[in-house]
Amino acid sequence: MFNLVIFGPPGAGKGTQSAKIIDKYKLAHISTGDMFRMHISQDTELGKRVKQILADGLLVPDSITIDMLEEEVQRNPDVSGFIFDGFPRTVNQAEALDTFLEGKGEKIDLVLQLDVTEAEIKDRIAERKKVSGRADDDEDKLLKRIDEYFSKTIHVLPFYQNQGKVVKVNGIGQIDLIFGTICEAIDNAKVD
Ligand code: ADP
């Protein structure tokens, strides 16, 4: 198995690059943000619990997120690997993921850090808002999400850096050029 975490602030291009990675490397995509939005649109019990949290741009509690993630992994026993998008977002989630994968004889092989400036993120999300209709793309909710990123999620990086797993990729520029750099990082990690 080859397991990858795609990491970066809101609007870094995680979703866009994930779609290209899945296509080329045939990994199963797990986006916790997409999963929460699906639960909300289907008005499930979980959806009801997290709706307001997402609308406010806050992080969903770890216990809910970790349970949902682990169930999704268990539902896909025959894949050649996973790309985790939007997870882990806290050190607690990262530790839980390591323990969980270890129990399956698996591990995270690579963490791709998409590096983007705060100014670029804000521009992109303002653009995305015009087409996505995502309530959490509003200016004040976006600031909240960026806040959550810099107060909680950023600490996930040293966690994986200590394991020597992080490759930083410049996330600004043409989508295909960024993807090219990502492919190099994946191909290198695969032969290691
Ligand atoms: P973006 O791509 O803009 O970073 P996502 O689609 O990944 O946003 O996530 C949207 C929202 O879903 C987050 O703001 C948060 O409320 C919730 N969420 C997603 N993943 C997690 C997670 N791993 N832990 C806690 N909350 C999460």
Automatic annotation (TrEMBL):
InterPro entries assigned to the protein according to its UniProt record, in alphabetical order: Adenylat/UMP-CMP_kin, Adenylat_kinase_CS, P-loop_NTPase
Region (NMP): 31-60
Molecular function as annotated in GO: AMP kinase activity; ATP binding
Key word Ligase present: no
Subunit details: Monomer.
Function: Catalyzes the reversible transfer of the terminal phosphate group between ATP and AMP. Plays an important role in cellular energy homeostasis and in adenine nucleotide metabolism.
Pfam families, A to Z: ADK
UniProt entry keywords in alphabetical sequence: ATP-binding, Cytoplasm, Kinase, Nucleotide biosynthesis, Nucleotide-binding, Transferase
Annotated protein name in UniProt: Adenylate kinase
Subcellular location: Cytoplasm
